[in-house]
Amino acid sequence: MSDNALINRCKDERWSEAAELLNTKEGIEMANEKDKDGLFAIHAALSAKGKAAPDSLIFALIKAAPDACKAKDVYRSTVLHMAVKANSSTKVIEKLIYANPKAVDYTDAWDKRPSDTAPEGYNFTALEMLQRPAAFWISAVNEKKMSMIEKKLTEKLKKNAVVLDEMLVNYEKKQPELVKEGTKHLEEKVSALESELADANKKIAESQLESEQLKAKVKTMEQMMHSIELNLEKAMSGIGANPVTASTSTTTTAPSVATTAAAWMLADKEKSK
């Protein structure tokens, strides 16, 4: 007995138990394990001497361990040889050919291809399939793969198209709201810029006012200086003509304190020359 529970169940033709085990992760791992003779569970299922393994089990074994379809026994027999001898259905033959299309041309230890081992009265459709060359089936397998890829791509494109349509619909629904929000945002920015511009203009106006006031102050000071200079000249003229009278007079022609002080300063300056 093998340590592989799936192989043992197939050898004992406990088909329902084998199918149940294949529904587990451990069962799938067992389907990919070899026994001491280098064979897999699918070989044990197709070598049954009593009731043939149900098609559903063979399909499950092919799906679980597709590489097992490439293995040969000690007599160089493939699973396709075994399936023909077991008088398997056309669907099983087709599945096995698609799993390993080169097997239709493989010969066993007696130099027989799978089609050569067909019993008398064998299914005509299945026999016709077996008699086609490997090149035909390799091409068919590639076409099937391409068809599956194309189908998947088409489905993906359809899904993407649906998603894109939904996105466009949502965008069209939200567009007025987005435009409104964008307009509001722009208006807020414009308002902020206008406020900044108004502040700048205000500061410029204030600066211009301060400049005008400063000019007015400078002009006033210039006028005051000019007036002081005139008064000072008058005072000096009076001192030069009659110093005694000018110094004692306090009522008729008395200049202001500032004028008098400026006059004495000018007099001191003249003396220093």
What does this protein look like?
The protein has 273 residues and is mainly alpha-helical. It is 71% helix and 0% strand. The protein has helices at 5-11, 15-22, 25-31, 41-46, 55-64, 79-85, 90-99, 124-131, 134-241, 243-248, 257-272. Helix 2 crosses helix 3 and helix 7 (90-99) runs parallel beside helix 8. The protein is rod-shaped. Mean pLDDT is 84; it is low at 245-255.
> What is the average per-residue confidence, as pLDDT, rounded to a whole number?
84
Order of helices and strands: HHHHHHHHHHH
Biggest sheet, open or closed, and with what strands and sense?
A: none
Query: What is the helical fraction, as a range of percent?
Result: over 70%
Please count the beta strands (DSSP E, at least 2 residues each): 0
What value does the Rg take, in angstroms? 58 Å
Estimate what percentage of residues fall within beta strands: under 5%
List segments where confidence is low: pLDDT < 50 over at least 5 consecutive residues. Answer: 245-255
Shape assignment: rod-shaped
Number of helices: 11
List keywords for this structure.
273 residues; mainly alpha
Give a brief description.
This protein has 273 residues and is mainly α. It contains eleven helices and no strands. The longest helix has 108 residues, at 134-241.
